[in-house]
Amino acid sequence: MKYYKLSMDMERKNDIICHYEKKHNIPQNAFQVGKMYCGWDNKFSFYYDKQEGSIPTDYLANDKGWFVVSNKLKDLLESMNTDIQYLPIRIAEKSSDEELAGYYIANIVRVVDALCLEKSKYFTTEMAGIGTIYTVSKFGIYADKTENSDIFKLANRQEIPIFVSENFMKAINNNSITGISLKEISVV
Fold it and tell me: Fewer CB atoms near the end CB (10 Å): N or C, the chain?
């Protein structure tokens, strides 16, 4: 099976870009470490400026780097082999306060120990009290260690990138999901 690194589709024009206005104190990496988030109060809001972009996508760009998904993409993700916590958010146009309904932070909590350093490009840094840190620019994974997951993150301080299977790639193409770009990675 093929696997891909998921990222924002940067080729599109006039897409909505959401901005955080510091009304809630949520750490930047809260939804990037592969752990459940406790204490969600459903009051978080993102804002966008229609002059900057007015087209909603299924994976919505935002200045926090979070995986913000539409109802359509959420439904698709729920049919996949993964573990994801969905947190409803409010998205509104900055000047009119008109709401863009049906969006969630998709907090991916499936973390697998599948990084293959032999197929990756990386450099190491030694950190006192932590050990070796791998900074990876090109990922390779062991397919047999993915637990047949369709959406996952990697263990060992590599939790920020999102990885997806060929099944996911086919599903987003078949369902015309917008806002996502996929780059194939090496698989052993």
Answer: N
